[in-house]
Amino acid sequence: MHGFVRRLPISLLLVAYGCSTDPADTTTEGSGGKEDGPASYGGFIEEHDDRADEIWAFSDPHGGIDAMKRLLESSELIDSESTWSAGPVTMVIAGDLIDKGAHSLEVIDLLRRLEPQAAAAGGRLIVLLGNHEAEFFADPSNDKARTGIDNELGREGINPEELAAGMDSQGRGAWLASRPLGVRVKKYFFSHGGNTDKRSVKELRRLYATAFSTGKGFADKDVIGGNSILEAQGWYGDHRSDKAGRENARALGVDHIVFGHDPGAFGKKDQVEISNNGILIKLDCAMGLGGVEGELLHISTNGTDHAEKVRLDGSTEKLY
């Protein structure tokens, strides 16, 4: 195995994730090094109940910096200078920043700049890990990386192994490796692939602490295996069934599970879509690929929850 986990002592990686070095210890302290109030960040899963009356989300920008900026600017979440202009809202990006498109580093850099700007405005930007990032850290010369971010790193004179080890001079690798695998924001759970295998947040924290403390880290089957939180597709069965995702949501203590990773989920490839029972929301729209502009998910949790998808032209469609 290559990458971040192998190059740094595992205790340091666990501390970076804000969790105990003891896999049996699922307690959390503080807010993961972020001065953001009562939120907790432990065991690779964040939880936030404050500052989330308004939530925006998207996933899978895949190096498509221009498409991402157009979409965010069209909803006045950033301004024409790519500065945070959304105010005190919560924004979640559900992973896969890299590969496919030609500007993975620009996507990373923009989100790194926006993160403190959001906090200064009373908001929060939460960037989650995707399978492409985890696979890069497990093996920076994997097939997806070789045809994706590695080409870009080569043009910039950056060694992929250094980025994967968190040793690059710009700090991109360390920042990216410390992204959580999932986040609960009020009654919504966000992750890249969505499959929590009917585990609670506490059980997930224990699971990932074990995966990293035993040395497999990002290469562990519970992180990037076929049935994992980052890689699984179709784990919910028939999206038209009333049972789709229901037991997973109940175990997490949420009403909705929001995920990216699978643009074809629910049979609607290029748009945000919701399962028939209203529990599952898929984000991946193949943004910026093949001329697809993408869509944003917009949720209001002030009073009765309302959700809509928002298009580049400003038009909306109610989900509930």
How does this model look, in words?
- The protein is an alpha/beta fold.
- It has a single domain (50-201, 215-318), classed as Purple Acid Phosphatase, chain A, domain 2.
- It is built from twelve helices and 13 strands.
- It has helices at 4-7, 10-16, 65-74, 104-120, 131-138, 143-146, 149-156, 160-164, 172-177, 201-213, 221-224, 246-252, and strands spanning 40-42, 45-48, 54-58, 90-93, 124-127, 182-185, 188-191, 256-259, 273-274, 280-282, 295-300, 306-311, 316-318.
- The strands form two sheets. It has a seven-stranded mixed sheet, with helices on one face. Strands 5-4-3-11-12-13 form a six-stranded mixed sheet.
- It is globular.
- It starts with a helix and ends with a strand.
- Residues 1-12 and 26-43 have low confidence and may be disordered.
Q: In terms of per-residue confidence, which ranges show pLDDT below 50 for 5 or more consecutive residues?
A: 1-12, 26-43
Q: Per DSSP, what share of the residues sits in E-state strands of 2 or more residues?
A: 15-25%
CATH superfamily: Metallo-dependent phosphatases
H/E topology pattern? HHEEEHEHEHHHHHEEHHHEEEEEE
> Biggest sheet: strands side by side, in what order?
1-2-6-7-8-10-9
